[in-house]
Specification:
Length: 103
């Protein structure tokens, strides 16, 4: 079993932005150790003659033929005609990030 400490668990929790209680630390320490051991088993697999794999579907650069039909697109004026809440040619919406402390 991996030799993890409470400090290791707290470090992982900090990276994940989790505040753990002492009982949670005690609970997660053996669980995290078990996960590390399980992943460590991959070191035992012989991959010497295995080619690296990025994807397995066999597809490569699948693109759609054709061009955009601009006759079906609205102009900026047409899009903004339904609102009076406009700023610099864009929709003006309420701020959603106010009060963030992790800037």
């Amino acid at each position: 079993m991996a030799k993890l400490t409470k400090a290791d668990v707290l470090h992982v929790a900090k990276l994940a932005k989790l505040n753990l209680t002492e009982p949670e630390i005690d609970k997660f320490l053996p669980q995290l150790s078990s996960i590390i051991d399980f992943v460590g088993q991959l070191d035992q697999v012989d991959t010497e003659d295995i080619e690296p794999t990025a994807q397995v579907t066999g597809l490569s650069n699948v693109f759609r033929d054709g061009e955009a039909d601009l006759s079906k697109c609205l102009s900026q004026d047409e899009v903004l005609s339904g609102t009076d809440k406009v700023y610099n040619g864009l929709f003006k919406v309420p701020a959603i990030l106010e009060g963030r402390t992790d800037k």
